Amino acid sequence: MEAIHVFLLCITLILFFIRPKFLRKSQTKNLPPGPNGLPIIGNLHQLGPTPHETLSTMAKEFGPLMTVKFGSITTIVASSAETAKEILHTHDQSFANRPIPDSVTTQPHPEGTLAWIPGDQIWRNRRRICSTQMFTSQRLDFLQHFRHKKVHQLVSHINKYKGTPVDIGSLAFATTLNLISNTIFSLDTVDPDFETAPEFKELVWKIMMDAGKPNISDNFPILRWFDLQGVRRHVKGSYTRMHEIFDDIISKRLKHRETDKTTRH
Q: Nearest-CA neighbor of 217 among 230, 236, 208?
């Protein structure tokens, strides 16, 4: 394994030093100022255990808009309300897309998501469906009685365990999950006794942890195929299981729709 790592490092070094000089210059043209970095790794070694504090300190020296290099990825950091407004409000269309973490690409059909696809017409159509069909004020008002019902269900479940410890976090998570799934699917994701809540919460937690974990594949896309830290291998099972749950919900919903049609006829 060490030999493989040495081989990859040598290849990376060769690619860095054989790049045409004009290409290296073009990458730094018209970029905001920023701290000097090392070859290959850029400013990764300067981030430390609290990157947000490190970037805040750097911004005091280089200004509210600065350039840092995270491996082979050039990143522009905005650290003031004014620059953030310029990016997120004034020029939001130009900056609508976002880099996709390598772990996210492991999920089945990532192109079918709403969070990670480019901000193009497909994304706008999906957002329009959410705003006009699922999260309208009329639909939310219509489900108000259901929200009251789920809160009462939560309280009743807690009352069964008087005198014994209760994981309020998991129960609140399950209640919120059922509220969302009923808004979208008109079905509960978690059973009334909350027995399936821990599994779903664990799946979401694993996916979030792997997505936020520092991953060398995100800093050096040329190495993604190797999955050196095993992040994709680790998160793949969680994505697969979550999609199995959603597939089951969709199947139940389709069967319920077919039953309604048969009953009406």
A: 230
